[in-house]
Each structure stands twice: as structure tokens, then as C-alpha cells.
Amino acid sequence: MLEPSHNDELPPIPGKRYFTIGEVSELCAVKPHVLRYWEQEFPQLSPVKRRGNRRYYQRHDVLMIRQIRGLLYEQGFTIGGARQRLSGDEAKDDSTQYKLFLRQMVSELEDVLTVLRR
């Protein structure tokens, strides 16, 4: 598992529509029980639930989880502080999400470039 301070070293998010809780756990370096707890604490996290209460996360959920992880583990926010930051400073959070999105897009384009060079 990655150290909390290594958020930049998280694996790139694959181009899938839905992710299971196990996949999100690996993509965000957070255990599944922590993800389930965060769903209760952060109203922004609401994965689709299907048969048998199985959770399916979308790309925006994964980005939000990475943002929450960064606030809690890297910036030292409490759960309440992170919740307030996410709900109160949406303009700043949009820029953070935009930066994450751009970083992910660059990574995916580099992967495409590697495949094309072969």
C-alpha cells in the first residue's frame, strides 16, 4: 500500500464506466471499509448500488475519493474539516478536481502515445 504522502503515485484511472469497491480501493490506496465509512460522512460520495447492495463507483467518485484522501492524509484535515472544505469551497475544489483530471488525462495520452509508437 502507498504511503499517505504519495497521492501523486496513485495508479491512473482506467477508462471504464463503473468500478467495484475493490478496484477503487486499489486505485485510491484506501481500504474498502474506509470507503464505506466515507460514504456515510461525505454526501458527495454516492456510488450506484445494484443487486445485493453492491457498490459501483464512477470516475467522478474515484476523483472525489482521491480528493478526500488528499485532504485527510496529506493536508491533515479532520473528517469534519474535510467535509466543510468540500461543501463550502466548491470553487477551489473545482480547480483541484480540474488539476486531477488534467493529470489523469496527460497520463492516459502518454499511454496512447506509447501504444502508437510500437
Automatic annotation (TrEMBL):
PROSITE patterns: HTH_MERR_2. InterPro entries: DNA-bd_dom_put_sf, MerR-type_HTH_dom, MerR_fam. Keywords: DNA-binding. Residues 18-88 form the HTH merR-type domain. GO terms for molecular function: DNA binding; DNA-binding transcription factor activity. It comes from the Bacteria. Pfam families: MerR_1. CDD domains: HTH_MlrA-like_sg2. This is HTH merR-type domain-containing protein. It comes from Pseudomonas matsuisoli.
